[in-house]
Amino acid sequence: MESKVTLKNKPIYKVNLFYLITLIWAIITQFLPIDDKSYQYVAILIPASIYLILNKKDIKRILKLNPLNKKSLLLIPIIWIFMLPLSLFIITVYNYFFGDALANVIIEETTNNLISTFIFTAFTPAIIEEVFMRGIILDGYRYKNIFTASIINGLMFGMLHLNTFQFSHTFFAGIVASFLVYSTNSIYSSILLHLINNGFPILIYLITPIQNTAPKTKEELDLLFFSIIVVLSLIIVCSLIYRLASINNIKLKNKKKFSKEKIFNKPLKASILIFICFSLILSFMIKKI
Question: Measured in whole angstroms, how far is the alpha carbon of residue 191 from the centre of its chain?
Answer without folding.
Answer: 11
